[in-house]
Structures are given as structure tokens and as C-alpha cells.
Amino acid sequence: MSVTHTLEADVLRRQDPQLADILLGELERQSTTLQLIAAENYTSPAVLAALGSALANKYAEGYPGGRYHGGCEMVDVAERLAVERAKALFGAEHANVQSHSGSSAVLAAYAALLRPGDTVLALGLPYGGHLTHGSPANFSGRWFDFVGYGVDAETGLIDHDQVRTLALAHRPKAIVCGSIAYPRHIDYAFFRDIADEVGAYLIADAAHPMGLVAGGAAPSPVPYADVVCATTHKVLRGPRGGMLLCGADLAERVDRAVFPFTQGGAQMHTIAAKAVAFGEAATPAFAVYAHQVVANARALASGLAAEGLVVTTGGTDTHLITADPAPLGVDGREARGRLAAAGIVLDCCALPHGDTRGLRLGTAAVTTQGMGEEEMVWLAATLAQVLRGATESQKVREEVRELTGRFPPYPA
Ligand SMILES: Cc1ncc(COP(=O)(O)O)c(C=O)c1O
């Protein structure tokens, strides 16, 4: 089924051609440029169908069997299915699938475990902590007393000695592990030990690696963390949204922290789409996909290093790479603009120990398109040529168009 076909057949084209053109324009952009934004992916037509279903009309405050609205028979079944699939997929005792986003899930985890003013230890923002990990621009930095740990200046790896020293000195109520830009596996057993040593809760914000965990391509935080927060998009390839996993002992606190404490009515179309995505992620094909995502990221990281970019930590264990393009004579912000003109879409990001900004790349979307290591080698070389100014961006734009034509995200 082609998404274009769905849209063209849809009443939207007749009723609101202006908006239909915008949607088709975005589909065209996604289909003819390379999406290397580490947080993005292409959901399946089945996930898109659930998102566009009549469940979008339904109000459903509360939880299955205990709603504040009538008529919840079908959405109750959908939510129970999503919860059971999430529990089975990740081996968790309890799942809450109502969080509207990754940030909402983190907010709910804090609400379940903390009180305003509590001390929390998390990866500092310059090293890849998320806004919800203590940014002064975010509720987290205003309501809690965040202490930031960092990464080793030489290796770029999380400085475990510093984590322990800070934990002993500050005795936080919670320790957060998880990042927007850390390319290596997180040692959850280490964080569990430190949390136990200082009597803290351990919150794993596994928004990025959770899809790899589902496919068996990354270690799971579930056996170690008191609460795991995640997004259902990114590598997991579901709709934009969040979820929380925890043990049975914290189930009620987590559920009440989501509703009624931080959210109102659940978005049932998104929850149905989450159920579809969890079902897809439980298949052998998804495990193959998750391992290929990592193989592609490793090939891309090696290619970028061979071209002279400085790859943080020297490589990756995941879908995500951060790299400094400075040796090619350009900083991350300028690099992002030049690459966008060539049809290569990615983010720039803070680098652990640089004054300039670097690049953040991910392989979840291109792997969904079916690309492999061969294409990643081409991509690294092409990206470097664009940054060196050795090739016209218009020429690369055509090559990207040809490549995406061979690997369409939504085949006709
Ligand atoms: C580690 C981490 N936590 C939280 C979030 C927030 O997710 P959302 O944008 O869905 O609120 C992200 C998003 O990239 C993330 O990487």
C-alpha cells in the first residue's frame, strides 16, 4: 500500500487540496532526501493507518476498566493489547503506554519518584543529557536540584569514577542514565550498583536505544532500572509518543503520575499505533533490522573517520554517531546547512570537549529503507566531499535522488 495512494484517495485531497499538497510535499521530501536525524525513522503503513483511524475521536481519561468516559469498550481492548505487547517485548512487569512523548514519560517518572527540591544526578547537558535532565529552560532544572556527570576527556566514555564520586558526595534521590547523543552502550549494572550504594532510584531514559533493545541489538535497562522511560518513535519505529516500564511495586505510582498527575485523556489512536509497532518489533524481521541498524552505523562511523572527521569515542555500539567535522574546515552548524542543500538531512550537536558544534547522525531511517553497509561507505565519502567543497551540492542532490529511488521508504 502506498502512502501517496492513501492520501490521494482520501477525502482530504478534495476537501482541502492546500493541506493535501503540504502532506504530499513532506512525503516527497522524506522520499527523495536522506534522513540521518538519529531520532527519526519511517513508520510502517500499518502504524500510519492506526494513527489516522477513528480512535482519534475517542476521549478516554483513566485506564482500561476504569475510565471517566463512556464508550471505551474498543479502546480499552486496544490499550490492554498495547500494554501486554510492551510487557512481553521488553520483559517488564508493568507498562504504561499513555505518555504523549518522551519528555512526558520522564516528567511522569520524576513525578512518581521525586518531590520538588530533590537532588538528581544525570549526564550533563554538554555531554548529551536531554533537556529533561536538568536544563534551566525545562521544568526539570527549575523543580529539581540537578548535578551533572560528564564523559572522559580522552575517550568520550561516561566517567564512571566521577559518577560514583558525585553520587557519594550529593546522595541524590535519583540517578538518571540515558542521553540524546551517547553512541555507546550504557552500563546499566554499574548504574544500579551506584544507585544501591547511595540509596537512590535508578531512572533509565532509554529513548534512543529502546528499538535496539527490542531487536536484541543492545542491552536492556529493564532488569536494572526502577523506571525505564522511552519514546516509541526513533529506532523502535512506532508513532511519536512515550512509554514507561517498571516493576509491579511501582506500577500504581507510575500510572497515577501519568494520569491524572501530568496528563489528561489518553490519545487512543497513538496507543493503537504503539500496539501495532510493538507487534512489528516482536518479529524476527525486526531483530534483523535492529542488528543491521548497528552494522550500518559502524560502517558509517568508520567511513567518516577514514575521511578525517573525529568520531566521538572512536565509533559506535548503536544507531547513533557524533563527529567533529572541523578537520575538514567546517563546523557542525555550517556542515548541516551544506549537507541539507545536497539532500542529506542531519543534526548538529554539542561535542563533549569542543568549542565548535559537531554532527549527530543515525542510521534507523536509512536502514528501514533497506540500505546496507555499501551505501553507508558511499554516504561517508559523499558527505566528506560536500564538506570539503569538492563536489557541487546539486550533483550530490541528484545522486541522493537516484539512491532514494532505489530504496523508497514507502514502495508503491
Ligand atoms: C534521551 C531522551 N529523552 C527524552 C527525549 C524526549 O522525547 P520527546 O521529544 O518525544 O519529548 C528524547 C528525544 O530525543 C531523548 O533523546
Largest sheet: 7 strands, mixed
Mean pLDDT: 96
Major sheet strand order: 4-10-9-8-7-5-6
Q: Give the class-level CATH name of the largest domain.
A: Alpha Beta
Strand content: 5-15%
Do you know the CATH topology of the largest domain? Answer: Aspartate Aminotransferase, domain 2
Structural class: alpha/beta
Describe this structure in words.
The structure is a single chain. This protein has 412 residues and is α/β, with parallel strands linked by helices. It has two domains: 54-281, Aspartate Aminotransferase, domain 2; 284-406, Aspartate Aminotransferase, domain 1, CATH 3.90.1150.10. Helix content is 46%, strand content 13%. It is built from 17 helices and 15 strands. It has helices at 3-9, 11-15, 17-32, 45-51, 73-90, 102-113, 139-143, 160-170, 188-198, 210-214, 251-262, 268-281, 284-306, 332-341, 364-368, 373-388, 393-406; strands spanning 34-35, 62-63, 66-67, 94-96, 119-123, 145-149, 174-177, 201-205, 227-231, 242-246, 310-311, 320-324, 344-345, 347-349, 358-362. Strands 4-10-9-8-7-5-6 form a seven-stranded mixed β-sheet, with helices on both faces. Strand 5, helix 7 and strand 6 form a beta-alpha-beta unit. Helix 13 (284-306) runs parallel beside helix 16. The longest helix has 23 residues, at 284-306. The N and C termini lie close together (7 Å). The model has no long low-confidence stretch (mean pLDDT 96). Residues 39, 101-103, 106, 130, 132, 178-180, 205, 207-208, 231, 242 line the site of pyridoxal-5'-phosphate.
